[in-house]
Amino acid sequence: MLTGTCHCGDVRWALDSKPESVTACSCTICRRYGALWAYGHIDHDIQVSGPSKAYRRKDGGAIDFYFCPRCGCLTHYIATGPGEDGKRWTGVNLRMLEPDAIADLPIDHFDGLDTWDDLPRDGRTVRDMWF
Questions:
Q1: No. of H helices and E strands in the chain?
Q2: Domain extents for the chain?
Q3: 2-130 has CATH 2.170.150.70 classification
Q4: Minimal CA–CA distance to 33: which of 69, 62, 61, 72?
Q5: Which DSSP letter does residue 27 get?
Q6: Residue 112 has pLDDT above 90, yes or no
Q7: Would the pTM of this model clear 0.90, i.e. be above it?
Q8: How far does Cα 65 stand from its chain's mean position?
Q9: How far, in Å, are 18, 32, 111, 114 from residue 1 at the CA level?
């Protein structure tokens, strides 16, 4: 299990198992946040606790981004509606972890700006971005 926290510790998330990779997205919002994402479903394999504030894009968007109202850290996002299985897709910001916990994970790049395609891995890991 991985547990991340915002800077002040008020918001916490727990991911049931360590992901095989992390995702860096190039969309207009993720590139501004600089988040590294891992995925699951809220209240299934991802649990979140503590007070948070949501932000949704002006155009409606399909996900709400959550921040700690005290320190401002982006902690996670949740899909605005359930999938066909009734679960809500969730991403947790792995930058809320200590680096050593995920340093060796490969980075998957997602072109969320233009093509919505997964891009080929380039061999970089989290360690290359953080150290």
A1: 2, 11
A2: 2-130
A3: yes
A4: 72
A5: S
A6: no
A7: yes
A8: 9
A9: 6, 28, 28, 34
Query: pLDDT of 74-103, one tens digit each?
Result: 999 999 999 999 999 999 999 999 989 999
Sign of CA dihedral 52, 92, 24, 129: positive
- Give the confidence band of 49 by pLDDT, cuts at 50, 70, 90: very high
Residue with tokens 């005290």: 70
Tokens (6 digits) for 78 = 């949740």
| Coil vs helix vs strand at 129 | helix
Q: Which two tokens stand for residue 99?
A: 């680096």
Lookup: tokens for 75 = 């902690």
**Greatest pairwise CA separation for the chain in angstroms:** 40
